[in-house]
Amino acid sequence: MKCLLFYLVFLELLWFGYGQSSNHQPLAPAFFVFGDSLVDCGNNNYIPTLARANYLPYGIDFGFPTGRFCNGRTVADYGAMYLGLPLVPPFLSPVSIVQNVLRGLNYASAAAGILEETGQHFGARTSFSEQISQFEMTIELKLRPFFQTPDDLRKYLAKSIIGINIGSNDYINNYLIPDRYSSSKIYSGEDYANLLIKTLSAQISRLYNLGARKMVLGGTGPLGCIPSQLYMVNGNNNTSKCVTKINNLVSLFNSGLKDLPNTLNTTLPGSFFIYQNIYDLFHDMVVNPSRYGLVIPDKACCGSGRYGGALTCLPLQQPCLERNQYVFWDAFHPTETANKIIAGETFSNSAKYSYPISLYELVKL
Question: What range does the record give for the signal peptide (predicted)?
Answer without folding.
Answer: 1-19
